[in-house]
Amino acid sequence: MRLTQKQEKVIQFIVDGRGEITISEAVTLIGDQYHNQSKYVGETLSRMVRRGVLCRVRRGVYKLATKVSGKKDTYVVSPSQTRLFEQVEAAS
User: Fold this and answer.
1) 52 touches 65 (CB < 8 A)
2) Residue 56: enclosing H or E segment and its boundaries?
3) CA 64: distance to chain centroid?
4) Under 8 Å CB-to-CB from 10, ≥6 apart: which residues?
5) What are the tens digits of pLDDT across the range 16-37?
6) 68 to each of 45, 57, 91, how far by Cα in Å?
7) Where in the numbering of this chain does the AbiEi antitoxin N-terminal domain appear (predicted)?
8) 7 φ, ψ to 5°?
9) Looking at the DSSP assignment, which residues form a beta bridge with residue 58?
10) Which has the closest alpha carbon to 55: 64, 45, 44, 43?
11) All structural domains of the chain
């Protein structure tokens, strides 16, 4: 499963920041809809939770998933994985 640009931005924000993201931070980061931004951003975050990329810490707060739930399209994203891709891109 390939991540969208918005999903990649969310992951990068979490990795570079304090380890979690709120809906309001995500709206500022990826909300490009004129009307009802929080709805669309919330749907993006919910899709990431269903796929196992993020987990919900509490209402409106998300962090990177740390374990696989056993679903076919679920995987773990750790900060070291994203840094590895940055190093490969920088070397190119």
Assistant:
1) yes
2) strand 54-58
3) 7
4) 21, 26, 29, 30, 44, 45, 48, 54, 62
5) 988 999 999 999 999 887 788 9
6) 17, 16, 30
7) 10-62
8) -65, -40
9) 61
10) 64
11) 5-91 (1.10.10.10)
